[in-house]
Amino acid sequence: MDEAIRKTILALLDEHRIMTVATLRPDGWPQATTVGYVNDGLTLYFLCGPDSQKAANLAADDRVSLTIDHDTSDLMAISGLSMAAHAHPVTDRAEAEKVLGLLPLKYPEQGPLPFPMPTPDDVRIFRLTPTVISVLDYSRGFGHTDLVTC
Question: Which residues form the Pyridoxamine 5'-phosphate oxidase N-terminal domain (predicted)?
Fold first, then answer.
């Protein structure tokens, strides 16, 4: 992967905090859900309920599509990422604790939560490993994308 595009991807990941992740339901319909995320380089993590539909979908099929973007009033300022990735549950306690420790860093302006931070036993944490990343940047032309295979 070209170093310039890698830096662009990492900057977009660091700039944002939420993504839309699409999983496959048992009936074949995609299910798109907005979730918060943290990243360690190009590896993304998100949390969900252990008994959630997302967790059930991913237990059956680990493929996800996701988008990370923001709203803008300037058409030519549209930018963001879309990815195809594989989702794997985080089962290592140290990795899970690390992810939960990264979450508050994404929200530095957040005061104390009205409830305790979840523990690895309270939530399911998924690690997303991208296989294809599309970098959208309208400032380089209407609908301009750079496609990167990981």
Answer: 6-134
Sign of CA dihedral 116, 119, 122, 126: positive
137, with CB counted inside 10 A (0-12, 13-18, 19+), is middle
pLDDT in tens, 83-115: 999 999 999 999 999 999 999 888 888 888 788
Reading the block at residue 121, the tokens are 């036993």
Report the alpha-carbon distance of residue 90 to residue 128 in Å, rounded: 10
Q: Which residues pair with 147 in a beta bridge?
A: 134
Whether the CB-CB separation of 45 and 130 falls below 8 Å is answered with: no
In contact, 66 and 19? CB cutoff 8 Å: yes
- Rounded distance, CA 143 to CA 106, Å? 29
The pLDDT score that the predictor gives to residue 138 is 86
